[in-house]
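Hey, can you fold this one?
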Amino acid sequence: MTRAAAIALVFFLLAGSASARDLQIFFIDVEGGQATLIVTPAGETLLIDAGYGPRAGRAGGPNIVGRDPDRILAAARQAGIARIDYLLITHFHNDHVGGVPDLAAKIPIGTFIDYGLPLGTDRMATNGFRAYEPVRDVHDHLEPKPGDRLPLKGIEIDVVSTAGVLLSEPLPGAGQATPACGSLEDHVEDGTENFRSIGLRLQFGQFRFVALGDLSGDTLTQIVCPVNLLGEASVYLVAHHGNYDSNVPAVLTALRPQASIMNNGAYKGGAPASFATLLAQPDMDLWQLHASLNAGATNAPDAFIANVDEGTTAHWIKLTAKDDGSFELVNDRTGFVKRYESRDKKNRR
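Sure. Predicted structure:
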């Protein structure tokens, strides 16, 4: 073999290795807030929300200072990354944006993504934005609209909602009527910024992941009713921590996820009605970041729950997906692993 041929073979093998890299998603336990770290096959990073900022703990417990940024950094170390290329804030509540100032002091962040400004009528969002804005304003900043695609390489991340506005047209592969829309409960908005959350659909080959922030009430319903704007999903991050106003069975009927992840806390989210709906879905597993201690809650089996105490541990759930649509989920607490075939392969049998 000539030297030129040998060099060409090395480049071919390296290119093949790079193209075979997997998508990784770490669902980080921030006790009922959100922090979801995505590492793309190209090695870029997207963090969706940064958990809580400093706040008082439960009655009789310690104040919480720097907890969630440290949990995010632990997941980043596990992923082998030293930088966050994009930080997307779904909305300006403290459980999603509060950890940003502390996190930004500990790890480089490239571009901030959000919907600009809060309405000003939600005190929780106003307070969260006050601490967040000066950090954001010394970074690059994007304000996407529904239908925009985020600029990450090797995957497609489409914005499906932002600032209270939803997609005007279905995404590719979507547009079907949702049969479960005929018997919906009316969920009026709760008067907060939740309905303004940025929602996303991520696609990596045949794998799809849907994350809708705290969309809830009738706004959440409208994303699949009467027409499914998103198509089917491999994995769904349950909106609004599994609270009662995100218990919209039509969403699950439309998405048909093989697995759903609930980012609840011991006492936050995880409404009994939501558990009942999620656990009743055929061919879908429910994974939880936390066992719910709420009265009447029926948790998933222990193997699918990352944390079972009242806030001491911070085990994550890790997802690894291939472009053929197959994926696996790992429970960091127990080491339990479940592998899922791509839906197309399963349906061909």
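The two ends are 44 Å apart (CA to CA). Let me know if you want another pass with a different chain boundary.
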